[in-house]
Amino acid sequence: MTEPLKQNIAKHISLSEKETEVFCNLFQQRLIKKKSFLLKEGEVCKFEGFVTKGLFRVYHIDKSGAEQILYFAIENWWITDIDSFTNGLPSQLFIEALEDSEVLLISKNDKEFAYTNLPEIEKLFRVMTQKTHVALQRRMIDNLSKTADQRYLDFIEKYPKLYQRLSNLQIAAYLGISHEFLSKIRKKIAGKK
Question: What are the CB-based long-range contacts (under 8 Å, 24+) for 32-36?
Fold first, then answer.
């Protein structure tokens, strides 16, 4: 169960086999059924998670009731509400399984234990945080400077395995457009082929 996590760690930092085992043993496995929630708005997020199987969406519902998807998480991706987890605030997000899923969760206390006893782990999370900031910055720039057509084509190109596992409604919510507008984009693109 922890083999994908070990491989993910090895991509970013070097740990001894013993250190890797100590770190991986801090995680708890959770099985989440399709349409079940790992986190709901108003709850305090008490975990950072590593997805070993399945697909999650992380989203917010605005005052008008519209879903705003921040991101999706598939195998080998990390998942959390970083604001709630870090600051102990009630979450503004939902984390829902879109497929039957498995995730490894680490608590704040266990993460702090790892920082203290396995100093390289701090580097791991620093590197991951930097990559997350880069991805969010790029997404913000794309949302401000690209058309919906361009954002849709970029999404398909960047996440081909993810794209195939999502409904048009979910993709539209991620892109910040209506389902109907996405249908028009898809027809226009199909017409050009």
Answer: 32/56, 32/97, 32/100, 32/101, 32/102, 32/103, 33/97, 33/100, 34/97, 34/98, 34/99, 34/100, 34/101, 35/96, 35/97, 35/98, 36/96, 36/97
In a domain, 69, yes or no: yes
Of 8, 6, 26, the residue nearest 16 (C-alpha): 6
Report CA-CA distances (Å) from 133 to 4, 104, 128, 138, 176.
23, 22, 9, 9, 20
Question: How many domains does the chain contain in total?
Answer: 1
Rounded to 10 deg, the angle between the 148-158 and 120-145 helix axes is 150
CB 154 within 8 A of CB 146: yes
Q: Which residues contact 6 (CB under 8 A, 6 or more apart)?
A: 20, 24
Residue 102 domain flag: yes
* Token pair belonging to 172: 């539209």
pLDDT tens sequence across 84-104? 999 999 999 999 999 999 999
pLDDT in tens, 166-181: 999 999 999 989 889 9
Range of 89's domain?
3-117
Q: What is the CATH number of the domain that holds 55?
A: 2.60.120.10
148 found inside a domain? no
Instruction: Using alpha carbons, select from 149, 145, 143, 154 the residue that is nearest to residue 188.
Output: 149
